[in-house]
């Protein structure tokens, strides 16, 4: 079902975003967007695959800049102050050369031997028949965000090649598992990943791997006969594609676009099957809700290996936006790197996650304490109050031009940013209110999952619904199941998990996908996520606690906290915490200092009751660095295992504060 059928595909953007979509209604036990009870699949019948969306963008925005990057100078170890760009026409040409070159290099590869390698030889004959069960060989992308990542993804889309992605925080065992379960014969990666891949190959843990394509052109093409592996530079593959160019092999709606592996804490990650159907429906949702910016720009900050950034980046490409990529050499300070890139690139919007917003709020508050400008604080407080008065109220006044207020935005790189998207976990409402007012920008809170190809609901930029994740997509329906678990269905929802029928069966109830999230529904049909069902724990008093909500509040209300893990037991009456502080010098060395720290941080938190305040704590720096996902979500099970002995010790020591504190 298409949103528009009586207009030309090129005119669709003139009618977006849609109006009258700011409410959901219930029909026969299921909630749908009030725009229509019908669940839509795409914007237009001619925009039915991701490939068609990008080709349409090339037709409409041929000379606009598409991808922007700052090339690193290894000699001087610096970045230029400006971005190099590739236009939509240049990207179209490059992706066709790249796709052709990949197919040619694999076709000529001398080390093919298995059934999956037969898929390479038969690709030219079979690509038109690929579907949800019969797919191409699987190409793997393995690097941080860079323009070659997007170029490779678009090349796969143009030639009906299914892809997947690796990222280091999965761990070596998961990398091995993904390469084996997908039987991936080719990995397109950055130079720093080659050694890891060759190690896996040499130990017999990636037997199907016969080709590596390096994104960095300082690596020359060669053949490793001992490992039966061919290695190419990115430029050499493009040159092969120029010499042996193939016409596009466009996918159908049922062609598997990607297999996105979740960064769960189980022994093996689950591979979520996402067809072009899901990719297009996810794009349709964002296209119908997000405002259009003429010649817009976005910064690709979050990992492309995760579906959230992949969804928003694909949407940006379909709109003719320019995608800017962060510097590749990063420091240990994620927020500082982000601010640097924001200042130089000046995007119209950027997609972030609550942990980054918490850090940003903390830094802004710390700065405000230092400058001690009464009028500046008054402007922010008044704006918070005014923005609460009704949905969509930006609360603009002449004070927006007060020089210290303008300087505040500029200091944190948000001078030109119109709005921020946040997803991946519920954000603290106080954080959203503060950032909207202090940075004078809109913030959209979205909700979704890998299994729904990212976001399926969103608030407005200046939404007054406390904790809300907004209104459901026109492509999706939802209802609340047992124990208020959110269940969803529609074109954005995965058909299942790759090579895992058992997990697929567990995930669905009569055609509804079980999200594992506990939710409530507001007066306008808006979704509010309470927490992951598995994250809740019961205290000995019988009270249930949502640790993620508390963690967000503690970080956003305390400028000295870098990150926190909060834990409780059903046999205990109090909560404990594991704190990473920003300053080593503030780590308590005595019991008395620890008590003072607890009093200080508990005194700052707002909106939680006495039982939800932590009563004992272990403190350090960078405590949680190795147990965060690429989107900065805490791997809670890993944290429990890592700190198991300390958890027991803290409970044995008992609460350090009185029950009244």
UniProtKB/TrEMBL annotation:
Q: Which InterPro entries match?
A: AMP-binding_CS, AMP-dep_synth/lig_dom, ANL_N_sf
- Protein keywords: ATP-binding, Nucleotide-binding
Residues of the signal peptide: none
AMP-dependent synthetase/ligase domain segment(s)? 139-498
Recorded GO terms, molecular function? Answer: ATP binding; long-chain fatty acid-CoA ligase activity
Looking up PROSITE patterns in the UniProt record yields: AMP_BINDING
Q: Which GO terms describe its cellular component?
A: endoplasmic reticulum; membrane
Q: What is this protein called?
A: Acetyl-CoA synthetase-like protein
Q: Which organism is it from?
A: Candida tenuis (strain ATCC 10573 / BCRC 21748 / CBS 615 / JCM 9827 / NBRC 10315 / NRRL Y-1498 / VKM Y-70)
């Amino acid at each position: 079902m298409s949103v528009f059928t009586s207009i030309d595909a090129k005119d669709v953007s003139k009618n977006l975003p849609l109006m009258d979509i700011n409410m959901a209604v219930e029909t026969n036990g299921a909630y749908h967007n009030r725009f229509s009870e019908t669940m839509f699949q795409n914007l237009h019948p001619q925009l039915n695959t991701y490939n068609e969306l990008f080709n349409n963008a090339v037709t409409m925005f041929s000379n606009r800049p598409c991808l922007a990057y700052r090339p690193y100078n290894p000699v001087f170890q610096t970045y230029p102050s400006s971005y190099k760009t590739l236009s939509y026409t240049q990207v179209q040409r490059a992706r066709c050369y790249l796709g052709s070159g990949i197919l040619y290099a694999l076709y000529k590869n001398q080390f093919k031997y298995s059934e999956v390698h037969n898929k390479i030889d038969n690709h030219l004959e079979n690509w038109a028949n690929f579907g949800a069960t019969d797919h191409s060989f699987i190409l793997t992308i393995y690097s941080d965000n860079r323009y070659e990542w997007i170029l490779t993804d678009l090349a796969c889309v143009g030639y009906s090649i299914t892809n997947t992605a690796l990222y280091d925080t999965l761990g070596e065992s998961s990398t091995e598992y993904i390469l084996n379960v997908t039987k991936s014969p080719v990995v397109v990666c950055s130079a720093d990943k080659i050694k890891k891949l060759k190690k896996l190959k040499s130990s017999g843990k990636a037997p199907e791997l016969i080709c590596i394509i390096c994104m960095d052109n300082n690596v020359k093409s060669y053949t490793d006969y001992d490992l039966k592996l061919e290695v190419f530079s990115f430029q050499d593959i493009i040159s092969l594609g120029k010499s042996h160019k193939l016409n596009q092999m466009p996918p159908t709606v049922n062609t598997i676009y990607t297999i996105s592996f979740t960064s769960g804490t189980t022994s093996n990650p689950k591979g979520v099957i996402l067809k072009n159907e899901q990719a297009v429906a996810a794009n349709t949702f964002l296209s119908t809700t997000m405002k259009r910016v003429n010649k817009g720009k976005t910064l690709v900050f979050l990992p492309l290996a995760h579906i959230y950034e992949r969804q928003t980046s694909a949407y940006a490409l379909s709109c003719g936006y320019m995608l800017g990529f962060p510097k590749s050499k990063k420091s240990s300070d994620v927020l500082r790197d982000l601010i640097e890139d924001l200042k130089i690139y000046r995007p119209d919007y950027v997609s972030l996650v609550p942990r980054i917003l918490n850090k940003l709020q903390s830094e802004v508050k710390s700065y405000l304490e230092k400058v001690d400008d009464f009028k500046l604080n008054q402007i922010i407080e008044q704006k918070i109050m005014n923005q609460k008065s009704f949905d969509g109220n930006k609360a603009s006044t002449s004070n927006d031009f007060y020089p210290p207020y303008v300087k505040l935005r500029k200091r944190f790189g948000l001078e030109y940013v119109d709005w921020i998207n946040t997803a991946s976990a519920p954000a603290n409402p106080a954080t959203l209110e503060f950032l909207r007012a202090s940075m004078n920008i809109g913030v959209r809170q979205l909700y979704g999952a890998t299994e729904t190809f990212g976001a399926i609901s969103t608030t407005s930029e200046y939404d007054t619904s406390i904790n809300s994740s907004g209104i459901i997509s026109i492509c999706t329906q939802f209802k609340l199941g047992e124990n208020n678990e959110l269940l969803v269905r529609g074109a954005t929802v995965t058909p299942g998990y790759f090579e895992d029928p058992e997990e697929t069966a567990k995930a669905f109830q009569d055609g509804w996908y079980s999200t594992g999230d506990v939710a409530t529904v507001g007066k306008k049909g808006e979704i509010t996520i309470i927490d992951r069902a598995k994250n809740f724990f019961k205290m000995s008093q019988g009270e249930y606690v949502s640790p993620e909500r508390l963690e967000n509040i503690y970080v956003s209300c305390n400028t000295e906290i870098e990150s926190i893990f909060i834990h409780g037991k059903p046999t205990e009456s109090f909560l404990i915490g594991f704190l990473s502080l920003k300053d080593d010098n503030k780590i308590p060395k005595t019991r008395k200092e620890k008590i003072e720290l607890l009093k200080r941080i508990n005194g700052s938190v707002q909106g939680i009751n006495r039982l939800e305040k932590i009563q004992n704590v272990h403190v350090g720096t960078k405590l949680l660095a190795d147990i965060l996902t690429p989107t900065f979500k805490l791997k809670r099970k890993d944290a429990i295992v890592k700190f198991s002995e300390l958890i027991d010790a803290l409970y044995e020591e008992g609460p350090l504060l009185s029950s009244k504190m």
